What we know:
The protein has about 240 residues and is α/β, with parallel strands linked by helices. Helices cover about 35% and strands about 25% of the residues.
Amino acid sequence: MTGAGLSRWAVKASTLYDSAYARRYRAHDDEFQNSAPCRRFADWLRQVCLTFSPPIDVLDLGCGTGRYFWALAGVHELVGIDASPAMLAEARHPYNADGITAGVVTLVEGDLFGHEFGPARFDLIYSIGVLAEHVPFDAAVVAHVSKWLKPNGRFAFTTVHPESPSIPRTLKRRVGRSLAAVAPRTLERRIRQRLLSGGLYADEAQIQRLMSAAFTIESLFEFESEAHLHCCCVARRKAA
């Protein structure tokens, strides 16, 4: 932990995502209807909500400017957590605010690796464009989410796939991919873990590996946005 008990990822977010960045990001939200990938993410999130009997309690993990708050359905309380106070300031007047139907919206400035919500608080936890992109997707994140979800609650999230065209094709990555294709299984796994860059990328196999103990994966597919090739996953927390 660093800087007032924050992880280095939270320190990075609170430093880089300053007021100027947050204003630019929020301005981009207003172009939502021009972004087919954003519309698809919103539709996907709404469909996940509709798998529940309302009302539900929801956590947006790394909520940023609250871009997808309006897409939720049947929500009693919506909690958004983010390490950047500037992004949270913009989330107080999010995109399509008149379309938000949640009964209560609570914004929390905090570190998703260190904040504590308590056990079995939420029916749905979602995270779009954060995990395996700006912060690692790893066993610690899965453990937190598993603890915070009610039994049979759902975790809907995106990651950046390690084969995304947005990732620089460095010599090391090219060599690593070539070696993984012909290496013995044990060595292949080690190479592929290196290609995941400490959790900053995650493919289907890594998601299944991390989630299998506590979750049942209900859907897992690849999706390409303007920025990345993503994995999109919906997983249900096991009851016991």
